[in-house]
Design a protein that fits this description.
- The protein is α+β, with helices and mostly antiparallel strands and 61 residues long.
- The chain has one domain.
- 51% of the residues lie in helices and 26% in strands.
- The chain is elongated and about 50 Å long.
């Protein structure tokens, strides 16, 4: 999923799936995409925490 702002300050979204991509211009739909991106960003691990998790997972194998 990508969110892009045009030079005219309009936001558009782009999502890609298997064998397809979709450009989203509807303001409400783009707003939903922005909220989803914000939620995903808030739940991501820091780079250091990601490395630690991968090391623990590797040790568990």
């Amino acid at each position: 999923m990508r969110l892009l702002e045009t030079s005219e300050r309009q936001w558009v979204g782009y999502s890609e799936g298997q064998k397809t991509g979709q450009l989203v211009c509807d303001r409400e739909a783009v707003s939903v995409m922005q909220m989803r991106c914000a939620k995903m960003r808030s739940q991501t691990l820091s780079p250091a925490d990601s490395v630690e998790l991968l090391q623990r997972m590797r040790g568990a194998l």
